[in-house]
Amino acid sequence: MLMLTEKNKFIATVLAFAVIPMSGLATDIYLPSMPSMARDLHLPESSIQLTLSLFLISYGVTQFFAGSVVDSFGRYRITLISLALFVISFLITANTGNIYVIYAMRILQGVLSGFAVVAKRAFFVDVYEGDERKHYLSIMTIVWSVGPIIAPFIGGYLQSIFGWESNFYVLAGYSFILLISEYFFSGETLKMKKVLSLNLLKKEYSMMFRAKDFFYGMLMCGLSYSMIMFFNLCGSFIIEHKMGYSEVVAGYVSLILGFAWMLGGFIGKALINKAFLPKLRIANFLQIALIGMMILASFFLNNIYSLVAFAFVIHVTAGFIFNNYFSYCIGRFPNSAGIAGGLTGGMAFIITSAISYGIVAILKPEVQLDVAEGYLVMGILGLLVLTLIQFRKAHI
């Protein structure tokens, strides 16, 4: 297997950063197209929303075992295979009108995202050490947020000009460019392969789940990202169907909220040396206060400007909490970086898919107040987890 050379280290790092947002691109680029997909395929909104949840579930479940696979077979080969299959699956999605084929492809794309992203998370742990590793892992969570920022913005224009199928053609082209670039400029970074063993995997997972700080961190990652995905599931339908705006406007809204998520990540990186739990408790209290203000304002304001303004500041707090805990969890077990990254991502996205889809199914959000109520549920759950963390720390 071709090992990564020192001269290709920089470009391989750039490519790793380019692969990391793939999951966000695959979930968010077609958000403005979801109402049109429902209309064109003659399906209810819930059927199209399910394509997103199926992706997230398969993405999350895959990461449970993807870490052990990339720790056993290496990062490079797995990345190449994933990118090649991405190209095929996106082309199939764009060329079928059968919702069950789309479901199958979305599940496959979730699986491939799990392998590719876990491999690239482990790349940074393999290649960098100490403060440099900490620096790159923090940047990685920010770069990962680039996908949700630019994807719906691009998707809104693609939908307006070419239709929903064009989203998946663009994803296929992006995957192909990455595949060729990886083949020529990257290489293997795993220095010592581990034997793929169910007993070893069970032992590693048992050790990680017993680390309560790691376990609570995974819960907080899932709850934080649930706020983002909750809006993604219902936002386009509210903006396009209830408020009467175009898919381009829906794309701009997603772009703005993507910047909120990234801003939260930048603030998290800027405050990386501040006391860990106190800054997260402050962020959570601020988040709940903002949600309370959103609920009160909903009785007087119910337009796209108030909806986006409140969602923006709430998403900043969610991005801040996620950045801190995700970076912490991935770096928690450096000798099992693939497994730790896979378990963190897996738990986070299973929690995200279950909570976000569940709240949307129960509340069926149609107005700003409904969105605020969904945020409140997630904010209170986050407060409960942080309270448990503080209680446990006080009694150690």
TrEMBL record:
Membrane topology note: Multi-pass membrane protein
Organism: Chryseobacterium caseinilyticum
Chief localisation class: membrane
Transmembrane segments: 50-69, 76-94, 100-123, 135-154, 166-185, 214-239, 251-272, 284-301, 307-326, 338-362, 374-391
Keyword Plastid appears in the UniProt entry: no
Domain of life the protein comes from: Bacteria
Keywords annotated in UniProt: Membrane, Transmembrane, Transmembrane helix, Transport
Segments forming domain Major facilitator superfamily (MFS) profile: 12-396
Keyword hit for Protein biosynthesis: no
Localization, UniProt: Membrane
Protein name: MFS transporter
